[in-house]
Amino acid sequence: MKRLLLLFTALFALPLAAQDLGEPIPEGGEVETMGEADEGGLTGSVSFEGNLDDLGIAIPGFATDADRPTPASASGTAALGKEIGRIVYNDLRNNGLFKPVGPDSLPQPTFANITAPAWATWSNRGAEMLVHGYVRARGDGKLVVGCYLYDMQLRSELVREGWIVPPSDWRRAGHKCADLVYSRLTGESPFFDSRIAYIAETGPKDNRTKRLAIMDSDGANHRFITTGRATALTPRYSPDYRQLLYLSYVDGNPRIYVYDIGTGRQTLVTESTNPTFAPRWSPDGKWILYSMAVSGNTDIYRVSSQGGPSVRLTNLPGIDIGGSYSPDGSRIVFESDRSGEQQLYIMDADGSNQRRLTNMGGRAATPEWSPRGDQIAFTHIAGDFNIAVITPQGRGFRKLTNGWQDEAPTWAPNGRIIQFFRTERNSGRAGLWQVDLTGENERKLPTPVDASDPAWGPILP
Amino acid sequence: MNTRIATIALLSATALSLGACKSKAPTELPPDPEPTVSNPATTNTPTGPVLGTQAHFENAVNGQNVIYFDTDRYNIDTSDAAALQTQAQYLARYPQISITIEGHCDERGTREYNLALGERRANAAKNYLVSLGVDTARIRTVSYGKERPVALGSNAQAWAQNRRAVSVVIN
Fold this sequence. Notes:
The complex is a heterodimer. Chain A is mainly beta. Chain A has helices spanning 2-12, 77-95, 119-123, 170-186; strands at residues 32-33, 56-58, 63-64, 99-101, 129-137, 143-151, 156-165, 194-202, 209-216, 223-224, 232-237, 243-248, 255-260, 266-268, 276-281, 287-294, 297-304, 311-312, 320-325, 331-336, 343-348, 355-356, 363-369, 376-382, 384-390, 398-399, 405-411, 417-423, 430-436, 442-444, 450-459. In chain A, a hairpin with a 2-residue loop joins strand 16 and strand 17. In chain A, helix 2 (77-95) packs across helix 4 (170-186). By secondary structure, chain B is α+β, with helices and mostly antiparallel strands. In chain B, strand 2, helix 4 and strand 3 (139-145) form a beta-alpha-beta unit.
């Protein structure tokens, strides 16, 4: 009893310095969509009729009306325009669906060209689609960025949009433009303008330093949140990007904390001395799922993100852990070894109606419901560990990767790409990878150091 | 099961040899002055490890402060039981000692499941010690999942060494 009391005191009296947290991260500003852009609307239709991966898209640098100084670039708005063009190019190139050509191998259009393209310049280069854009520094310091997509064969505009961004968020304008082009050409929802939380790893296999870190979907704006003094694991971004759930050993025990990005402070998800694991948000951000071990038996609990009492959702002996909500919040897919080995189960959001989902041979772990609702991604364990998908009806099982140990899938906001981490045999080194739903387009996401436990957030608000 | 016992015997030997370079407990902490011990007959020899240290515990239980598990299992088998009985005897003899049982897993499991499995292993060991009469308040558990391997290879032998519950003296 004395020990318990001491533990409580220690938890609540913990000075900030002992929390393993770095400086608070400034929250991003608002990105406004410009009203006049709506006038264009969707005009014309795509004339291209081949495979998208043959689609040549020319993406020159964005033009500027006048080269002005801006906090977003030491070299002024002209250089910034070229950088924004590079962001659009890299987003679309890395996606694997297109064959874009970027600002570094194309001529630079003038500001007047943006709404009146020099068609011959681009048709001579074999481009089928043309992206134009501009950046203008406003009097109040904010940046106005316009993005236009043209069909070269029709010589007509397909779509345009404009945004007003604070200089610190200039990269988001590039992602917004890439999202506009991607959505218009594929019919899918956008996903580039989003962020990823993950665990940055350094050091030898038996003494890894694991730090909570965040970055944009393309790896830019990378920030460490914890100092690495305590092991941090399994982060999850709140849907509004204001908070992070993650596991920390900061008090010596594995416990889930709610970290507030604006204030840089964190609190325990539940005031229990039991270990807690596997935090998850509901899609509307109102609920938190966590798993808690009591006398060695782990079950899934739900608590309001505003705090208050927890409700236990599972109560069988065995490990019930994780949990991922359906997009409408009505059901939860979770992992349980109640059958003797890890398999996926589905229950209603109140814990009722629990039933087994997977029977495909091998074990199944870490389920994540697609934001589109049509697929559940998970770790399939049959010898090696691989990323696989199955429908919420338990059909259509497909293995998407072939690594030695691929683990912990997380969905892109549009439900078309899955990110996961891959661990190398023997060295134990891990990195973040992405695969699309065909399983054909796989790539490694560059990170400053080794990386694991990715969690992809939704489209930024 | 016979092969498992053979493996464990081999592993115990390995664990013994590893014991020397293990540094679970910080060695720089001040030794317990043991003011309550006044009888010279029960005082440790000056050359041996000091009571209250991990070295003293490991020495007294002959390296059996670690027990091992099969893949995805957490049951206490006969060799585990023998090791835990030795630990219980030590704890009965030194009632002032409390321990932490660390539950560990091999790398061939998903991270979150391994955290839960490590907790289950640590509790299995704790429950066995409690069944032998050790006060539950003297045993703390912590799971490290697959985060702290002792054997660094990616092979069956390394994984067997990493699926373990380690008893560590609380200083």
